Each structure stands twice: as C-alpha cells, then as structure tokens.
Amino acid sequence: MADELEKQKEYINMLEDLLYLRAGEKKPKAFVHTYGCQQNVADSEKIKGMLIQMGCELTEEKEDADIILFNTCAVREHAEDRVYGNVGALKALKKKKPSLIIGLCGCMMEQEQVVQKIYKSFPYVSLVFGTHVIHKFPELLYRTVTAGKRTVERGFDDGQIYEGLPIHRDGSFKGWLPIMYGCDNFCTYCIVPHVRGRERSRRPETVLAEAKEMVQAGYKDITLLGQNVNSYGKWLDGDTDFADLLKGVADIDGDFWVRFMTSHPKDASKKLIDIMAENPKICNHLHLPFQSGSSNVLSRMNRRYTREKYLEIANYAKSKIPDLSLTSDVIVGFPGETYEEFQETLSLIREVKFTSLFTFIYSPRTGTPAAKYDDPITHAEKAKWMDELLRTQEKIAAERCAGMVGNKYRVLVEEQAREGVLNARTQNNIVVEIKADTELIGTFQNVEITEARNWILRGKLL
Ligand code: SAH
Ligand code: SF4
Ligand code: F3S
Questions:
Q1: pLDDT-flagged residues of the chain (< 50)
Q2: Ligand 1: which of 35, 108, 184, 190 to mutate, most ligand atoms within 8 Å of CB?
Q3: What pTM was computed for the model?
Q4: In what order do the strands lie in the sheet with 29-34?
Q5: CA 425 to CA 411: how far, in whole Å?
Q6: Any residues with Cβ below 6 Å from ligand 3, and which?
Q7: Gap between the Cα atoms of 273 and 37, Å rounded
Q8: Which of 229, 241, 387, 437 lies at a 20 to 30 A Cα distance from 333?
Q9: DSSP string across 101-162
C-alpha cells in the first residue's frame, strides 16, 4: 500500500511540469464540483489535495479551468440527471479550449451502464474513475494527459483504506472526518453498497490522530462520517466501538464540538446515547433515518428494525438528552407502499417531532432488488403524499421554533446570510440569524432567540 502511494507521488511530480506546460506555462487551474453526500465531499477534499500537490490552483469558475472534475452521486435519478445536464453543458467550453481536461468520478462511475452512456454521449469526457481508485487519480490523470486518449478505471473493491493521501479541506473551522467507508446493509432501494463496496473502518488511533490535528488547526465543528457509524469497528481487531471512538474524540483537549452521521437505527446503542448525554462536546443532535413508519415497508426495505424498535431508541435518546434535536431521512412511495402505510409514516413524524427531515420520493436504482418490485402508485400520486408529509413537518418545525423564543444558546457563527446578517448554528443543528460583524465567522458566541418566523429563527448576540 505504501508502495502504491509512493508510485502515485512520482506521477504527481511528473504532472507538475506537464500540467504547467499544458496551461501555457502558467499555474494550472482546477475546478472540482461535488454532487452527493458528505462522503463525496470528503473524497473531493482528497482529490483537491492531490491537485494542489500537482501545482494546481483551485477555481470556482469553470470558464477559467484547465481541469474540470465532477464527483458524482448515484443515489437518486435526479442526482444523475443533474450530472448529465451539467456535463452536456461543458461541450462548448471544450470547443473553446481543446486542452481542457474533463473528468468524472464518484459513485455514478461505479455503474457499468452509466460509464457506457458517458462513453457514447460525451466524447469530450477524457477521464472516468470510480470510488475505489481515488488514490490512483495522479496515475490516471497522467495517462489521460500523455496518451491523448480516454482513460477509464472503475477498479474493484480491494477492501483497503489508503491512508496518507493529502487533504485540502473546504472549510477552515467546520470539517469532515471519515471514520469508515462503504456499506454492508443492502437496503433494497439503495445503490450505495453497490458503488461504495464493503464496509471497512479506519483504525481508531488514525482517526484520533486526525481529529487532534484538526482541533490543533482550529477546527471547531468536526463531523465523523460513515454510512452507518454505529457499526464502526466491526472488522477491526480490538474492541473499540463507535461510542468509544466518539468519546475518544470528545476527550481531545480544546474548545470544539463533535457530531456524526449517519446512525442506523438497527445498530444505535443505548451506550452511544449515554455517552452523548454525558459529554458536553458531543452535539445533542442525532440524525437517525427511519425511512418509513410502517414495519411492513421497513421489512421490505431490509432495514432490519421495526417501527417499535425505532421509537424505543428515539424515545430513549429524547429522555436522556435534554434539548436533543432529532433529524431523519424518509422515503415516500416505496414500491408497493399503500396510502395506509404512508399514514404510519405521518403518525411517526407527529409522534417523534423531528427538527427537520430530508424527504425523498422513491427513485428506482438499476441493480437493486426494489427496482424489480411492483410499483403501482403513480409519481403524481406520490408527489401528493409528499406534499402532505411536508405540510405536517412544517407545522411541527414552526411549533418547535416558536417554543425556542427567549432561550439562550451557544452557537458557532458560520457564514454570511446576506448584508449585515450572519447564520449561526446551535449544537443541535438549528440555524439562527444574527446581526453581527463578519469577523465573528468561525467563533463560538452566545445568543438569545428573539423571534421565530415559521422555521427561521432570529437571535441577538449576548
Ligand atoms: N447510510 C445512510 C443513508 C445514505 S443515502 C442511511 O442508511 O441512513 C441518504 C438517503 O437517501 C437515505 O437515507 C434514503 O432516505 C435516501 N435514498 C437512498 N436510496 C434512495 C432511493 N433509491 N430513492 C429515494 N431515496 C433514496
Ligand atoms: Fe444505503 Fe442502507 Fe447502506 Fe444507508 S444503510 S447507505 S440506506 S444500504
Ligand atoms: Fe451519493 Fe455516493 Fe453519497 S451515491 S449519497 S455520493 S455515497
């Protein structure tokens, strides 16, 4: 593995000159756009790290770029369509600048039918690589540049984790820290295990060392990432589980918050909740996707928990952690779902009172079991169900926000929302608008909530 990374270093060195010349004896510019989840964002940060080592400068303007890379997501059809649309729009740029290198990577590229479509429809895409070969990006780019023909590498899941790749983090005070890769759960609707490979965990000492570096570099909000963080460590020797790892990160000296996603309800333990409750640095935010409120639908989704089991862990967390914010993912219109079963989803939403929800209409994914299930409900009908769900959740969120007026919170000031107004975030992941100077971005402050407009909160600095 070390040999492999050494080899890639050599490609990086060779590319430094090649790309410089190709850009007309100028520092080459690279544009990287990320579709999809935080896992993809974290991968893009590695790709950017490698590009910088090759002497590139990152740009936000496609028009200026010598290299354009899209890191793609395959989770729903809509995500894929956006990629196709945006790749189509690059044709004109390539015509204007024939030396432009256009590359596609990420989850979509691990699907045979997608790669074929790209091959046929987008002849100006000259580099395609999947999630399993990110560490080989320098070599693949070198092949593209020197061979003058298209390079495609999908690789296979070798079960390895390539530690030691450079990272260029997008944020300077909020950062992602992957603790594991892949997924073994095979929910029947989901493409992720097919494009990300088998679950594997990074060693606890490696994660802790990286967390420590981040804290020392001034990171204030660190999110531990994995598709199912609760099964962290399953294949490692040693007995560190996710709760232990989380506690280990929180025990690092310094003033920072740590959060995590995603928790799978089947593996969420009371031990984890207890550790969250005991530790002030662990955010009182739990993203616990339930997907459906019907045990029958959950079983057909292969989620391996029931409505009752979900409610038990959610209620335990609520009882142990005051001010806990629960958020979730939910799928509307799973194949064969009846209106009555959908009503069970609504009743679960009313019962748990989530802070916010990520809501998706079911999207069939080639190669997953559910794509072959009977799906008699039309998309238009599912969209109506979705409206009903959104109205239910909006009411809950508005009530919750109204109840927060007068409360005081510690917040992390994150970004400018508009002239004179900044967005700050509470530990439990609620955004508060405050009037303050941009100098406060990246610092912890105390605010009092003064106003709630539906689900937008305003506050004042204390
Ligand atoms: N590992 C995480 C989810 C990753 S995908 C988990 O298990 O919770 C993010 C979300 O996308 C899922 O929680 C699910 O709600 C949604 N999703 C995944 N596949 C989908 C599909 N085929 N159609 C619609 N939504 C889907
Ligand atoms: Fe997909 Fe299920 Fe794995 Fe989440 S746990 S990534 S929904 S297969
Ligand atoms: Fe999308 Fe891949 Fe994440 S499919 S949701 S980017 S793991």
A1: none
A2: 190
A3: 0.96
A4: 57-58, 29-34, 67-72, 101-106, 127-129, 151-153
A5: 5
A6: 36-37, 39-40, 73-75, 107, 191-192, 195-196
A7: 24
A8: 229
A9: EEEEEEGGGG-HHHHHHHHHH-TT--EEE-GGGGGGHHHHHHHHHHH-S-EEE---------
